[in-house]
Structure prediction request, 198 residues.
Amino acid sequence: MTDIPGSGTYASQSYWRKRSDMLYYRYIDWIVRATGAKARSLIDVGSGNCPYLDWFDWIPERVSVDIRVPYAGPGIRSITGDIHRLTFPERFDICSCLQVLEHVPEAGLFAQRLLTLGRLVIVSVPYKWSTTPVRTHGHIHDPVDYEKLTRWMGREANYKIIVEEPFSVKKNKRLIALYDEDPERKFNSSLREGMIVR
Prediction:
């Protein structure tokens, strides 16, 4: 365990156990498989010790970065650190960042850094979560909508979808957005072709 606030929940994987069956993770899994069938590298920023990187075992280079507790598993390089202070020798084929931006004080700077890390960036954020009667613990930017995410990213997404968890009444929607290095690229039937090539 570490003395960083909130680390215990991540270190014990209780965060993951409470959320691992969420529908939006199935969408993330499918999107990575569809767009990254030919990917050779993936970095996940803000992993919170969640083991979803294990799902992508065909990708030889998988990196988990988190300021508290990055995920450490077989074949995964685990880095504790701040992405603004870390350097990498080259861009990754995929950069994922799931449910993190709403926690980051300088969300726009953070989002811009994500775009430098990957040729394809996959981001998810809580979609229009209410702050009443109480703000979600750790969230400083709720409510987040597509317009706010677009301001942070500095551009429109190449693809976006809102995923609604079934049987949930409140705070059940998440926005998933893809940002390709080519801002004009359209994702349609080519999504199934494992489009990442070097």
Observations:
- The longest helix spans residues 23-35.
- The longest strand covers residues 118-126.
- Residues 28 and 106 are 25 Å apart (CA to CA).
- The two ends are 39 Å apart (CA to CA).
